[in-house]
Protein: DUF1254 domain-containing protein
Amino acid sequence: MKLKYLTVATALIFSAGVTAQSAPLTIPQATKFDELATTPAEVTMPESYVKAIAQQAYIWGWPMVNQFNRRETITKAPYPALNGGMVPVAPMGQLSMLTDYIKPQETFVTCPNQDVAYGLGFFELDKEPAVIQVPDFGERFWVYAIYDARTNQIGNVGKPYGTKPGFYLLVGPNWKGETPKGFAGVIHSSTEMANVIPRIQMDDTPEDRAAIQAPIKEVMTYPLSEFTGKMKSYEYSTIPAIGDKPDPNSGETRWVVPEKFFDQFANVLNKVPPLPGEEAMYTQYRHLVEAGKKDPQIRKWMDEAAVQTDKTVIADFFKWKNNGVPAGNGWNRSKNNAQFGVDYYNRTGTSKSNMFDNKPDETQYFYTDNAGNGSQLSGDHDYTVTFPQGGLPPVKGFWSLTLYNSKHLFSPNELNRYSLGTKNQNLKYNADGSLTLYVSKTNPGEAKVNNWLPAPDGVFSLYIRAYWGEKAILDGTWQPPKIEMTK
Structure:
């Protein structure tokens, strides 16, 4: 097959905007990158080139194909409901809310959080802006994480920002209208695709489970055409279960299928505008996709590259040592979470290992697969995690330590307990003011059971959330404690 295409070297020069000597690159204003890409003589695309570019495209596009596939699936719900009785689903433009912690059997998303009541909704903003309704949460910590197609968080909506109760308008990149009366602010998405995940902190007590129900009813989104200026409510406690229950042994729902990737990738290139400097890369990827449509052999090579990249590069992102940056004592911490920009490495790593994290000023995440001695955490051993006096994660919101199995999901246990932290009112502190949490498969005894995080058979990982961190969390000077193996 012969095809006119932009070479890698040329693409890098155009993407960087400089020549090899770092002199300014001058391009006539009317020049289009698609035109530049067709100026070289026709050349043959060899298998090695096709697979090299296909691998780059797969790594770069994996989070966005993931996002669009989730939207397509979740918005098939005819009304707010719980998919499999566990995960919020809703029609386009609406959201659905949990009224308690997420159930441990869910497989919709890795690294679920049992500190908050979750919600979920997806939008198609080129059709119509969406109303984001914020009730009065009082002193309770809350945040609405609103993401674009790139999985960047685009709004500052939550307690850390002093957001007031009321109505907020979510608009797409082409919205030109004036803000209607009755709105406290406008949130601009860089893409027509957007989604929202409300997180509302809830203590693990019957009293707080009851207290949270009133504001949850007013957590709503709906099209601008349905806006009345009055607060709406929805009884989420009675929403039905739809769909099949997930298989807890299957791992996270497979949102990206390598053999289908390049069919769906074309939609990403059309729906997600390039960032400055990405124009030449887009041209290169479009040429690859078009070449694959015209030549079955080229498409076969593309699919082979996708399958291989999924098994190697994408799979390796599941290991916590490949996510974020070192945080001390064998832990890693998140970096650029939900503010990725052109940090394609951490964007794809997060999408694979713990999709939909919060921005750094809202939450910092610390995670590890290993004990302090470097060995893999395993149900074959017992561990302690001791926070010294004054050494708990310094937060204005809340903190927790969560245990995940080898699939970054929960393994049901006798206590139905998957995290410990601020939400637990009965933690027992040591005489010196330190706090020791016990991580083991077997019960450590009555005196320690309140501080026990049950471990499953096989390998597992530990994960600290620090919501609305103080300066020591944000600047990285606070370090998680060393995980000690005691047996």
Notes: The chain has three domains: 2-67+256-314, 80-239, 320-485. The CA atoms of residues 50 and 302 lie 7 Å apart. The first strand starts at residue 2 and ends at 3. The longest helix spans residues 47-74.
